[in-house]
Amino acid sequence: MNTTPASLLLRLREPADQAAWARFVQLYAPLLYQWVGRAGLEGADADDLVQDIFMVLLRKLPEFRYDPSKSFRGWLRTVALNKLRELKRRRVVAAGPLVEEPGAADPAEEFWDHDYRHFLVRRALDIMRTDFPETTWQACWLLVMEGKSAAEVAQAQGTTPGAVHAAKFRVLTRLRQELAGLLD
Question: Residue 7 gets which letter from DSSP?
Answer without folding.
Answer: P
